[in-house]
Amino acid sequence: MANGAQALMKTLVDAGVEACFTNPGTSEMHFVAALDSEPKMRAILALFEGVATGAADGYARMADKPAATLLHLGCGLGNGLANLHNARKGKVPVVNIVGDHATYHVKYDAQLQSDIETVARNVSPGFVRTSKSTEALCQDAVDAITAAKGLPGQVATLILPADVSWGDGGQPCALPPQTSPAIADDATIQTVADAVRTGKKTALLLGGRALREPSLRAAAKLAAHNGIKLFAETFPTRIERGAGLPAVERIAYLAELATLQLSEYENLILVDTKPPVSFFAYPGKKSYLVPESCNVNTLATPEQDAAASLNKLADALGAADTEPKLQASARPGRPRGKLTAEKVCKALGHLMPEHSIIVDESITSGLMLNALTAGCPRHDILTLTGGAIGQGLPNAVGAAVACPDRPVYALVGDGTAMYTIQALWTMARENLNVTTIIFNNASYSILNIELDRVGAESAGAKAKSQLDISSPVTHYAQLAQSMGVHGVRVQSTEELLKAMEYAQSMPGPHLIEAVVPESLNGVKRKVLPWLLRTLPSLPRSVSTTLKKKIAP
Amino acid sequence: MANGAQALMKTLVDAGVEACFTNPGTSEMHFVAALDSEPKMRAILALFEGVATGAADGYARMADKPAATLLHLGCGLGNGLANLHNARKGKVPVVNIVGDHATYHVKYDAQLQSDIETVARNVSPGFVRTSKSTEALCQDAVDAITAAKGLPGQVATLILPADVSWGDGGQPCALPPQTSPAIADDATIQTVADAVRTGKKTALLLGGRALREPSLRAAAKLAAHNGIKLFAETFPTRIERGAGLPAVERIAYLAELATLQLSEYENLILVDTKPPVSFFAYPGKKSYLVPESCNVNTLATPEQDAAASLNKLADALGAADTEPKLQASARPGRPRGKLTAEKVCKALGHLMPEHSIIVDESITSGLMLNALTAGCPRHDILTLTGGAIGQGLPNAVGAAVACPDRPVYALVGDGTAMYTIQALWTMARENLNVTTIIFNNASYSILNIELDRVGAESAGAKAKSQLDISSPVTHYAQLAQSMGVHGVRVQSTEELLKAMEYAQSMPGPHLIEAVVPESLNGVKRKVLPWLLRTLPSLPRSVSTTLKKKIAP
């Protein structure tokens, strides 16, 4: 007869949950022991929980099904919280299995006792459950998986007391048939179509699953037929792009630029996203970035089928047979000269193979990435959906586990890399095809901008030292080597290209530490003009306004 | 006129909060900018929030007053949760300042928006408050500091919206006079004294602040006068010990051994602690470790003055003028031969200077530490109070900031070290006098024991691989060097001694990676006899029972 853990393992595997990112402790030992009872379950050990949760996020973004995490009580969940936050904001399905003390042990308030459900609610508002008995466990698991997988995807947390896990009488359960998501109803189609037909300047803002090929193609028909502009949300969970797919312009991170991007639109149609708001609030600046005069309609919510809704709208507007405009093939040339963050992006655009997966947590260093890879062979980009840094390396682990035949590039800032640096060890252990590029500018560069932007101009020495991580400078190549990952430090563009070509030729993980100057210094004079280059399609009138605004 | 952040900074400093362990983001930029307005505030940057919170914990254990942390919204708090849990369990005062979005920005549910108060309640059940206005901010801060500092110490969380921080009209507030903690009342003294007078076999179990010198001396008078045994709780927040102080025996981690230690006592008197329970539950084993026939009385709760209560009891029992028995001076000899974890502890006992601070997170490797340092010059040991691993390195950072003139040793297992390895960078940046010793046995050694203990004996290859961190082996010396810390890898006892002597001769941080075999393999045959050596005072009758029990 199966114990709880063994029945749970079978339930998970039968429901298609075949990867578990783990950082177990004593209370999870029966779950660990049950791993061998299910050959289909792959267990990937992490040395820190934030790696496990970020990997589960990255896995699900690419596999389109949830992985499980295995975490050790409330503190393990706490360590994994930041990357679960990113998954929540990206509407990514994740099933957390959080071990807990045996039910009868809770009252003794032993060292690791804490209120796990409370912590879990922060990232799993839709599903937190402590399994009460071995008999109930597998149905609880099925409910958790169902909650995680349903649209919009979410993080579900199942708390597993040790005695529920070790108890006898576990009965595996099967997942019920999944229902298909709804399509936008006729009234919504009518409203949106009418708005388009007014002839007013219209943009579609695509988010979530609407940034995958089926939705992109449908949206591109509308763009071609009705002159609608296509925008993508600022931080896509996963965007499919490259030569042969429709191109969409991402809304900028800086509110000042996003406002400009949106300034001329009178109609905004939302698909699986919300109206753009600024990432942070700034004194005296607006949080809501859509022009007040702009008419906003939602075509499809995150609960709905974005592609089918877009196709239904295309039908209504007579765009069904329109040829969408597709991105032409175009790689940047081989970069030369002094190494900069931009050259790193250019080198990636120059070299990256088809079907690459780019995990982009490069913050300021990767601002040219989109422009420089737009015409590359088809690829996916995964981004920092929830703003909780430390997502890049773990996401790359998960993406590589989900797609072992695809090259994964993790572009990571030096500040962000350190939050979940332990991911390198898992890359080495699992021999994952991940090439990590660390932009080492020895600074929390984004904060130097933000310090200005929030109006705290008169920063003194102590304040500035809080944004300066140059003393000591971290040597990432050496750090990678210490965890078994091939690491090189490059200081010239030639060295970078050589290292990237070497990484392409050798399976397994690589880390390239690119020593680059800060991309952005002194926001007022340099950043805005520089960023303008990242938005090639900005309306000319806007460019003119902007140029006046930023003139010295 | 001061803005909120500036007034807050003055309030903190005036209340004696003079260290802030930081990992800020945009929403904290005004707090960061205000650092320069208060020369007394020292800001210590961490590359990961778990380092900041663990450092605040270690600081307060040694400084006996709280430090502040500066954390970035709910995700930053999440990353810091595990070490705040350790602080909570250790009753250590910490004041968290958690930045949040501007109050008017919350409704837009921007990327980093999450329910911060919910997360905070896990570690700050006694004080969580979101400051509502710049005018209210400093009183909120005073309330947080008061809550943190009052006995028992606790973690207080003050959530600081960006607009409350940048708003004008901040008015610094002063801390009200602190009240003295209560002393055990006459009835309690009477009850406890009566229990002692029965002549039954009696033990005092000391925890929390009762492990500092004043309480230890009072307890030792009772021990000498009334034949009372002195026990310390398993994981002391801070224990003062060494030659010239009374010695106390710590309750063992393994429930089997703790049960043996307590087996002969008929009276148990608690001072600033709870009755011992097992760390985890195990199938078929008891959680509550005190014999059922034992009479348990509480002399002083964590809210009360432990030393004064013990002295009052000593008065009642006529022990006030008794000479307490003190630990004799005795260092172990210079170790020789094959390097083992025990030899590392012996080397430390042989070499460590007076007033050393030992942060012990060595898990299985440090089991002989107490025995081998008992007669060393006076020192303090800080331990893993809440069981959330990743406490050692950050605690050492905080202890070194609090006590710049005292050598700090962090003894850390290779598994635990990786949770907050970023602490090394802060040690280098601040040039802290911390010598870290990593016991590299390439295993989650404790889990190999626990896998057996929970009854999951039939572990297969996948299960065992979850406890094996030998592929790849992490090179900690190299890892330390990558973050600017002098690191050496030692494989012999001679090399170890040389490295320790070098570290003593050179200020600043050092890391010694000691390559050791697993201390414990195969619990049934070896561990219990081995552990018996850690409990020199175990009653002979118990030893005999035990020897029979574990005979092959």
UniProtKB/TrEMBL annotation, chains A, B:
UniProt-listed GO biological process terms: small molecule metabolic process
One of the Pfam families matching this protein, by short name: TPP_enzyme_N
Keyword Ribonucleoprotein: no
Gene3D superfamilies in the record: 3.40.50.970
InterPro entries found in the cross-reference section: THDP-binding, Thiamin_PyroP_enz_TPP-bd_dom, TPP_enz, TPP_enzyme_TPP-bd
Keywords attached to this entry: Thiamine pyrophosphate
Entries under CDD domains matching the protein: TPP_BFDC (cd02002), TPP_PYR_POX_like (cd07035)
Key word Cell division present: no
Top-rank lineage group of the source organism: Bacteria
All copies of domain Thiamine pyrophosphate enzyme N-terminal TPP-binding, residue ranges: 3-113
Thiamine pyrophosphate enzyme TPP-binding domain sequence ranges: 377-513
MF terms in GO: acetolactate synthase activity; flavin adenine dinucleotide binding; thiamine pyrophosphate binding
Family: Belongs to the TPP enzyme family.
Name by which UniProt lists this protein: Acetolactate synthase large subunit
